[in-house]
Amino acid sequence: SKIPQIILNKKLKNLKGLSKVTFVFVILSNLFFLFSILIQLLFIDSSKHSFYILNNLQWIAGTLLSCVMDSVILGQMVYYNGRNERNSVIDTI
Predict the structure, then answer these.
(1) Predicted confidence (pLDDT) at residue 85 exceeds the cutoff of 80
(2) Which pLDDT value is given to residue 68?
(3) Is 84 exposed, middle or buried (0-12, 13-18, 19+ CB in 10 A)?
(4) How many whole angstroms separate alpha carbon 90 and alpha carbon 79?
(5) What does R_g of the chain's alpha carbons equal in angstroms?
(6) Comparing 1 with 51, which gets the higher pLDDT?
(7) How far apart are the first and last CA of the chain?
(8) Which string of b and e fits 11-40 if b means at least 16 CB within 10 Å?
(9) Which residue in 58, 84, 73 sits closest to 24, CA to CA?
(10) pLDDT tens digits, residue range 24-43?
(11) Dist. CA 66–CA 58, nearest whole Å
(12) DSSP, residue by residue, 29-65
């Protein structure tokens, strides 16, 4: 769902209506979820680490991919909003 949004954002070059704070909290929540998975490695026997990681690989990969996609959208917000603000200042001069 985020890939079409990234493409649309690039096409429109405008992200009005999207909240930076929301994306920051989504990224943070995904990172905390990832840490909650990985912190369990401290409490299990080291011989079972590979089994645990393989068992949770889908969650780890999905969370990392979601963080990357949300970071791209957040980067687009910063880039396009700064660019639009500069253009509006130039237009008023």
Answers:
(1) no
(2) 96
(3) middle
(4) 17
(5) 19
(6) 51
(7) 40
(8) eeeebeeeeeeebeebbeebeebbeebeee
(9) 73
(10) 999 999 999 999 999 999 99
(11) 12
(12) HHHHHHHHHHHGGGGS-GGGHHHHHHHTHHHHHHHHH
